[in-house]
Predict the 3D structure of the following.
Amino acid sequence: MRKLKHSILLFLTLMIFWILFTSLDVQELTIGAIASIIIVLMTIGLKPVLSAIKLNPKSILFSIIYLFVFLKELIKSNIDVAFRVISPKLPINPGIVKVKTKLKSPLGRAFLANSITLTPGTLTVEMRDEYFYIHWIDVTSENIEGATKSIVSNFEKYLEVIFG
C-alpha cells in the first residue's frame, strides 16, 4: 500500500511539473503521462520518499501557506543581507548556533534544513538527530531556545503538519 501511495504521488508530482512547463494540449499531456509512468515504473524498487507527505486537506492548505511563509522569509533575509553589504556600519556577528527541531520525518527535516539554507544569512552546516547546527550571519541568541525561535519556528509549524 505504501509503494502504491508513493507511485501515485510521484506520478501526480511529475504530471503537475509537466503541465507547468508545457501546455494543456492533448499530445503534450499524453507524452507527459507516458514519461511519468515510465519514471514511476523505473523507481518502484527504490525506497519511497514521497510517502512521508500527508495527503489531507489540512496538509495541502499548510503546503500552500508554507510557500508564502517561505517567500516572505526569503525576501526579508535578502533585504537584510543586502543592507549589510551596502552599509558596512550595520553589525554582523557571525557564528554557529545549535537549534532543535520537533520534526520526526527525515523528509520534513530535509525540507527544514534546505529552507534554512535557502534563506540568505543562514546555512545548515550539520544535522544530528533533532539538532541542527546553523551558521548565522548575525547571531542574536546563543541559547538553543532563542536561536530555534528565530530561525526554525516560522518554518517548523507548517512542516510539522505537512510531514508529521
